[in-house]
Amino acid sequence: MKKLLLIIAIVFAGFALKQIYLANLTDDVSLYGENNNAVDLFDLNDPRIRIVYFGFTRCPDVCPTSLAMLSGAFHQIDDTTLSQFRPIFITLDPERDSPDHSAEYAHYFHKKIEGSSGSLQAVNMLTERYGVTFHKTELKDSALEYTIDHSSYFYFLTPDGTLITKVPHTVTPEPIVKAIMSLSQ
């Protein structure tokens, strides 16, 4: 009987800690998109699965290729299935990428992709949580001054931010389509 009570106590404690962690993460992560409107990544009232991509608008190759593949995947999926997903681009370069600029960049690839920016602290919290690696690299003799070297994945998340799966950088839409179809209801 004592073992059963201990197990129940541990389960409840774990659940409580998760709720506290998620509440703190939600409170500390503020992202903004088009017209500086808040982008609530962890909106529990929105049941859609998030497809999150971390990148930056001045990326010369990886980000545009990845977002083009996401757009290509969306063009292969019916509207009913697509309505179950919420694609969000989060900039890794909030110093240069304003919320409006991030939104405009994301919309260039597909009208459903929300572009967002936030403080570097907010971005760091998210990248640490999902294992995104990135760092600023100075560019000598360039008007850009620096670039952002980063990992490239599509993160599929539940509304509370739990990672379901991730799809690595791809040069065809097929892996993204497969992930979407396997997660759609």
Walkthrough of the structure:
The protein is α+β, with helices and mostly antiparallel strands and 185 residues long. The chain has a single domain, classed as Glutaredoxin, CATH 3.40.30. Helix content is 41%, strand content 24%. A seven-stranded mixed beta sheet has the order 2-1-5-4-3-8-9. A two-stranded antiparallel ribbon has the order 6-7. Strand 4, helix 4 and strand 5 form a beta-alpha-beta unit. The longest helix is centred in the N-terminal third of the chain and has 27 residues. The protein is globular, with a radius of gyration of 18 Å. About 3% of the residues have low confidence.
Summed up, what is this model?
Keywords: Copper, Disulfide bond, Metal-binding. The chain is an alpha+beta fold and 185 residues long.
Strand order of the largest sheet: 2-1-5-4-3-8-9
Number of helices: 6
SSE-based structural type: alpha+beta
Q: Which parts are unreliable, with pLDDT below 50 for 5 consecutive residues or more?
A: 21-26
Q: State the distance separating the first and last CA atoms.
A: 40 Å
The name of the CATH topology is Glutaredoxin
